[in-house]
Each structure stands twice: as C-alpha cells, then as structure tokens.
Fold this protein.
Amino acid sequence: MSARAAVLGTGSWGTAFAATMADSGSTVHMWGRRQEVVDQVNAGSNASYLPGIELPQGIRATVDPEEALDGAEVVVLAVPSQTLRGNLEGWAPLLPPDAAVVSLMKGIELGTTKRMSEVIAEVGRVDAHRIVVVSGPNLAREIAEHQPAASVVACLDEATAERVATSCVTPWFRPYTNADVIGIELGGAVKNVVALAVGMAAGMGMGDNSKASLITRGLAETARLGSALGADPATFMGLAGVGDLIATCMSHLSRNRTFGEMLGQGMSVAEVAAHTSQTAEGVKSCESIHQLGIDHGVDMPIVGAVVGVVRGEVTPRQMVKELMTRSLKSEGD
C-alpha cells in the first residue's frame, strides 16, 4: 500500500527505513537538522550516514518540519531517543491528527524511565492506538543494501499495525505485526546495553563462550523486566527479542557493540564518544533501564555492571570479575 510518509531524522536507520518505504511505493518526505545532509538526500544519497548507497526515487528532504509533515498519513520518528521529548515539543502541533506515528527509536528516557511510545503519547498528544513501534534485527546498512530481513510492527490497534506494515513491505523487508508494544520496546532498548557488554568482552579478547553467556543472561534480564512491566514473554523469543539481540551483539555494524569493544580495549567513554560520530543508544539508556529495574524490583546484574563502566566506577575487567563471582543460583531464578 502506498502512503504519504514523513520521516523525521536523516540518520542511518531513518534513511534506510525511508528508502524501504519508497521502495514499497510510498512517497517519503524527510526532515533533517543539517542542511548538508538534506542536500545529500535530495541529490539521491546520504553519504554522511550510508556512504555508497543510492536512494530510490520518491524521497525528498527538508530542514522545515512543517513542510515534511504536511499531509502525512504515516509519521516516522527516527531521532536519538534522548532528544525525542525536546523535538516533539515543537512538532506536536504539526502532527496530522489521523496519522499513524511510528517509533524507530530504541531507548528509555533518562529521568522519567518512559518508553518512547509513552513519550510520544504524552508530549505529542497522540492516542496509543495510533502509536506504532518498529523493531527487529534491522542493521541499517544491510537493509539499505536490500539484504533480506524481517521486523516487527507493533501497535495496540491491529488495523494501524497492518497499515504501517503494508507501507514498508518489500521483497527484501518482511514486517510481522504484533500487539505487545511494551515487550517490543523493552527488547529493543535492553539489547543495546547487552551489546555494550558483549563488545567489551570482544575488546578484551574473550571468545564466543563469553559472548554467548552474556547474550543468554542478558535475554533473561530483559524477560524479567518485561514480565514485571506486563509484556508477553513470547515476545522475547521473537524477532524484536532474541533476533535483535543476536544481530546487535554480534555484528560489527552495530554501534553499541563497536562502542563496547573500544571500551574493552581500554578507551574511556569520552574517548570513544569523540572517536565515533553516531549515537550508541545503550550508553545513555543503560542508566534509565537500570533505574527501571530498581523501580520494579528486577535483578539486572549485566545492566548494572555496564552502568558501572559507563560511570567510570569500574573497568571492563572488573565488570567481568563482578559478574563471574556473584552467588550461585538456579538458572531459572
């Protein structure tokens, strides 16, 4: 189904998703903060974030959010999660009243511990039945290269989820619908923190046993938090749970995995941030996810250990020692 879509954000995932919607037949109008990137998109590429990728026709870009949002049937939000509230305060009056509002963001807001859909509902004044979350093993560059991938389109309203799914389906991008917005968002947020831990292990030269152990126990932490917040446990066995977790933890295209690897090699958080140009969501969201666990009485030792490293309280090697010397217990505890 073709749609008039607005994609707010010209980073790698926002651009790849805009290209997917255009390939599906939608007309896409993007908003970008930087004129330089907007000019690149209008010239048929986004060399700043997806170098070497030619964008399909049907995409144009602007620095004016009102122009981008005019007449949109689907509004896609693709900005760093910690900037969503500030951006939405300006965009809220411009959102078309009947549009589906799609979140591509994978984070938990600092200070409020709100999921991105909750921020959209509060600040954007959008009814929950119009809020859609897209998540899965979706490394932006692979999707922009038309490598086959699947994803989850989650919404409380089945018809809205189906409308968004049909606006982005292509022969190489297969969306599945789901009603578990909470589980889909938690899976997408927590996996970034686990990927930081896995990256640290890789940076310290640890092998696949270590990485697999972190991934598996990280999934257990995610499922415990999800259970406390009312998510469907089956969600974490799906694309937006274990699927996204594996892709983010194991791929060198993953910003969070790469950030963690540099930490494991001895760089500080400030040094890695200065070295990289894109947002690693887990670095900020680890604090809010840690707090969310505390608030709901959920034990999340890997998340807590990553928080310690990000704060500079422990080194990655000390983090591993702390995790490995915890008291013995049943795997199901």
The longest helix spans residues 181-203. The two ends are 46 Å apart (CA to CA).
